[in-house]
Design brief:
Distance between the termini: 82 Å
CATH architecture of the largest domain: 3-Layer(aba) Sandwich
Subcellular location: Cytoplasm
Catalytic activity: tRNA(Met) + L-methionine + ATP = L-methionyl-tRNA(Met) + AMP + diphosphate
Family: Belongs to the class-I aminoacyl-tRNA synthetase family. MetG type 1 subfamily.
Number of helices: 21
Function: Is required not only for elongation of protein synthesis but also for the initiation of all mRNA translation through initiator tRNA(fMet) aminoacylation.
Helix content: 40-55%
Largest sheet: 6 strands, antiparallel
Oligomer: single chain
CATH class of the largest domain: Alpha Beta
CATH superfamily of the largest domain: HUPs
Strand content: 15-25%
Number of strands: 26
GO molecular function: ATP binding; metal ion binding; methionine-tRNA ligase activity; tRNA binding
Length: about 675
């Protein structure tokens, strides 16, 4: 745990290239990794950050079939979108490559062959579902059927999305191929397995004894898996998209994506550093850190280390600081349901405000438990923290210096006790922020950085340099010198978190470069140094902007409900004479008013062609009374009268209930004589 390393290799989970990236990805993996890498670079340490797109596996092929294109078309499209989103958000990869590259295919094939030749795999023959018409074995997601738990007729072979239960294809009732719609048959197939059970003893020692410092959520999940006992896991599957198994007789089989993808970290490093990649992966003085989400913990803490150990020449990860999941407005983020804030869309709607999202996602990071992103919290943190604390302090310090000292750093004179107390307050900021960053507690580190801005704000409010400037200019010089030194410290403390904003602060201060070891110092800016003209760092976010984003999500929810809507089952058949008993007619609304003290009820006076009748209907939520007068409606004329709120209702208006629960009156498409019969 206290081992000294000469360099750090940071990997970020490879995002799946079947859709864009969203705020959940950013909060769970990429912002924490970027903060850590920027921090190490600022300290002058040797570090590389490796990432790339995961471009193999069944979801890619499913999307390709759905859109009528090739899998390569899908990954080319989304790799470009994902890569640009990361660049636009300042995620500082040294390389961002892809698993469809030639160097990856070669690296993954060689890795498999080495383990195969060492006898590290077990061959197993089993029966799996096969589509005779499509002439292919079916991956779990290509099999649908009835869920044995909730009866959902469209459950997948790996999970029922209706009740959330994990399934095996053989659990499904009446399974069918989603490619041809035919019932599949069982057919024998051979695959290679990594016997994780043989690695169980050293994994228990390595994780449970040697890495007790790992985050509780990571350690706990690993312990749970190890306590249950490990089992062999297939490293190959029957598919035509992926890295082909490099053996004779293995045609139509590719590396399973869980085996293929983590090797992408190695192949991407080889692509970046063809001559020196091995020192990053095979030297004991390299620290390997994987940043991932909680759904990848078992792969990066148990499976990938077992692969590396089986090879025998690679180092193992020193830490895997996985985050939990970020929800959105109280609901799980879902790509398939479009329930997400997509990074490329955020940049279009909030141009130049990358740091606002970086700040909010770090301050609310799901570090050890799931957390929730809401647009109201986004607005509050921007307005109450970035604008009112950080931006306000820096703007005041710089504007006052421009006003009283022509934009030049003033001299510092005799310090008061309050000055000394203030300087002492941020003297240990470096130590505090470092302590948290070194232990992957980015939320706490951000709080420490913001606390420095709070100290600055309080200092200016208490010392009131705009008042001392009228009577005591040397005192004003001292106050603003201290305020400017705090500003320079903020540029350092926030650089790992808010790279775009700290670049602006440095431009305001007319300084090109600041180093981590200067943090906490009170002489960063020399007396007489000329500052540049400042601008506002952050802008207030108005209620209207947030309401638009909330409405966008509500519209998405409505669209999802409409697309998932299933009509209620048809009621049991009735005889025609029974139907003839119902007297359905057309009437004209003579008058419509709200029923007093009843929010849902409207009172209609209807011309039914014979007389005038009163009908009460519960549609007030969807119609205004004044819009219905003079309109024609359909109603059941021979229902027995009943009293509602003391008013006798003689009949029932016909309406249809939409998928969202709203009601629409059934109305003739042309003018009909009142009293006309329907049927």
């Amino acid at each position: 745990m206290n081992k000294k390393y000469n360099r750090t290799l940071v990997t970020s989970a490879l995002p799946y290239a079947n859709g864009p990236v969203h705020i959940g990805h950013l909060a769970g993996v990429y912002i924490p990794a970027d903060i850590y890498v920027r921090y190490l670079r600022l300290k002058g340490e040797e570090v590389i950050h490796v990432g790339g797109s995961d471009e193999h596996g069944v979801p890619i092929t499913i999307r390709a079939k759905k859109e009528g294109v090739t899998p390569q078309d899908i990954v080319d499209k989304y790799h470009g979108i994902i890569k640009k989103s990361f660049e636009d958000f300042g995620i500082a990869f040294d390389i961002y490559s892809r698993t469809s590259s030639e160097i990856h295919k070669e690296t993954a094939s060689d890795f498999f062959l080495k383990l195969y030749n060492k006898g590290e795999f077990e061959e197993q023959t089993s029966e799996q579902y096969y589509d005779e018409e499509a002439k292919m074995f079916l991956a779990d997601r290509y099999i649908t059927g009835e869920c044995p738990y909730c009866g959902n007729p469209n459950a997948y072979g790996d999970q029922c999305e209706s009740c959330g239960t994990s399934l095996s294809p053989t659990d499904l009732k009446n399974p069918k191929s989603s490619i041809t719609g035919n019932p599949p048959i069982m057919k024998e197939t051979k695959h290679w397995y990594l016997p994780l059970d043989k690695h169980e003893a050293w994994l228990k020692q390595w994780i449970l004894e040697d890495h007790k410092e790992w985050k509780s959520n990571v350690y706990g999940q690993c312990k749970s898996w190890l306590d249950m006992g490990l089992h062999p896991r297939a490293v190959s599957r029957d598919l035509d998209w992926g890295v082909p198994i490099p053996l004779e007789g293995a045609e139509g089989k590719v590396l399973y994506v869980w085996f293929d993808a983590p090797i992408g970290y190695i192949s991407n490093t080889k692509e970046l550093l063809p001559d020196s990649w091995e020192k990053w992966w095979k030297s004991e003085d390299t620290k390997l850190v994987h940043f991932i989400g909680k759904d990848n913990i078992v792969f990066h803490c148990i499976v990938f280390p077992a692969m590396l150990k089986a090879d025998g020449s690679y180092i193992l990860p020193e830490n895997v600081p996985a985050n939990e999941f970020l929800n959105l407005e109280g609901d799980k983020i879902s790509t398939s349901r479009n329930w997400a804030v997509w990074l490329h869309e955020y940049l279009e709607e909030f141009p130049g405000q990358q740091d606002v999202l970086r700040y909010v996602l770090t301050a609310n990071a799901p570090e050890t438990k799931d957390n929730d992103f809401t647009w109201k919290d986004f607005q509050a943190r921007n307005n109450n923290e970035l604008v009112a604390i950080l931006g306000n302090f820096i703007n005041r310090a710089l504007i006052l210096t421009q006003k009283y000292f022509d934009g030049k750093v003033p001299a510092i004179h005799e310090l008061t006790n309050y000055d000394k107390e203030t300087l002492a307050e941020f003297a240990d900021v470096k130590q505090n922020v470092e302590k948290y960053l070194d232990n992957y507690r980015f939320r706490d580190a951000l709080k420490e950085a913001m606390n420095l801005a709070r100290i600055g704000n309080k200092y200016l409010a208490d010392t009131e340099p705009w008042k001392t400037a009228k009577t005591d200019m040397p005192r004003t010089e001292t106050i603003l010198n201290i305020a400017l030194q705090i500003t320079a410290n903020l540029a350092i403390a926030f650089e790992p978190f808010l790279p775009f904003s700290t670049k602006k602060i440095k431009e305001f201060l007319n300084i090109e470069h600041l180093e981590w070891n200067q943090l906490g110092r009170t002489d960063i800016l020399s007396v007489g140094h000329t500052l540049n003209q400042p601008e506002l760092l952050f802008a207030k976010i108005e209620d209207e902007t947030v309401e638009q984003q909330i409405q966008k999500l509500l519209d998405t929810k409505k669209a999802n409900e409409a697309s998932e809507y299933k009509a209620a089952p048809i009621k049991p058949a009735i005889q025609f004479p029974d139907f003839e008993k119902v007297d359905i007619r057309v009437g004209t609304v003579l008058e419509c008013i709200k029923v007093p003290k009843a929010d849902k009820l409207l009172q209609f006076l209807i011309d039914d062609g014979i007389s005038k009748r009163t009908i009460i209907s519960g549609i007030a939520q969807w119609y205004k009374p004044e819009d219905l007068a003079g309109k024609q409606v359909c109603f059941i004329a021979n229902l027995e009268p009943r009293k509602l709120r003391g008013i006798e209702s003689c009949g029932m208006l016909l309406s249809a209930e939409n998928s969202d629960g709203s009601l629409s009156l059934i109305q003739p498409s042309a003018l009909i004589t009142p009293g006309s019969k329907i049927g």
